[in-house]
Design brief:
Elements lengths: L1 E4 L9 E3 L14 H15 L4 E3 L8 H5 L5 E4 L8 H7 L23 H19 L29
Parallel strand pairs: 1-4, 2-3
Antiparallel strand pairs: 2-4
């Protein structure tokens, strides 16, 4: 499952969900680290800084990870304030939320950082193309793999193996 959340935040950063848990202490299901690495490799190749963030249950990936389906994604930031060290990495303004309009009435098309949206969109497209060309690296757990599904008969009914 690829999660693309808040990709054009006005005071953006480049965050990647820590799929293997080696930096934030909580791993997603088996295969999530592969998703994380695809984003890291892409932004490394672009010479762009990024940080990892934990799977904290705040986004659409949560139900997938609970079900054992590999997940990962990128995030530009929300209501948390940007730290001074992050200004050196991404630009923007320290002490101001990544997105002051997060879940507010002012969250509209005038509240988008086009440069950040472009950087995040490029990474998203890269990951989609990468995973569209293979399933071997993302099947992950039995719950998320084709081996855990039941065969279908021609009428759409499950058959027991």
């Amino acid at each position: 499952m690829l999660d693309y959340d808040m990709l054009g935040s006005p005071n953006y950063a480049r965050f990647i969900y820590d799929g293997n848990g080696d930096e934030q202490g909580f791993a997603g299901p088996n295969g999530s680290g592969v998703i994380e690495q695809v984003f890291k490799d892409f932004w490394d190749g672009q010479g762009l800084a990024y940080e990892t963030i934990p799977f904290d249950g705040r986004s659409d990936y949560d139900a997938f990870t609970v079900a054992g389906i590999p997940a990962g994604g990128i995030f530009a930031g929300a209501e948390v304030e940007k730290e001074p060290y992050q200004v050196a990495l991404y630009g923007g303004t320290a002490g101001v939320a990544f997105d002051q309009c997060y879940h507010q009435l002012c969250d509209d098309l005038t509240n988008v950082n086009n440069k950040g949206l472009s950087e995040h969109s490029d990474a998203a497209i890269h990951a989609i193309l990468t995973f569209a060309q293979t399933t071997s690296s993302v099947n992950g757990t039995d719950k998320g793999s084709s081996t855990s599904t039941k065969a279908w008969d021609w009428k759409g009914n499950h058959q027991v193996r």
